[in-house]
Amino acid sequence: MNTKIKFEFTAKIWIYSGKGAWHFVSLPLDLSKEIRDNLKDEEEGWGRLKAIAETGNSQWDTAIWYDSKRMTYLLPIKAEIRKKEKFETDMEIDVKVWI
Questions:
Q1: pTM for the structure as a whole
Q2: How far apart are CA 40 and CA 37, in angstroms?
Q3: What's the CA gap between 43 and 51, in Å, rounded?
Q4: Does 1 reside within a domain?
């Protein structure tokens, strides 16, 4: 197994306008470019990269997905995490992601 690379950033929570009302944070464009340049070969279907995310006092196994329209990776913020951390839409949060 490869050693995971840690990325840290601050981002605002937003809601996907389509079906499901998923909540996401968008990784900063410069981080997304760095990740895509170096790890694209490890992507699975739909630009998916397995990841571990951490914010507040919560850490969980997840994945990030590349959004070609936004030119960035998206990290879903599960309802369980939002509730535990008392996160709301448009709130800026500090995030750590290991890929």
A1: 0.91
A2: 6
A3: 11
A4: no
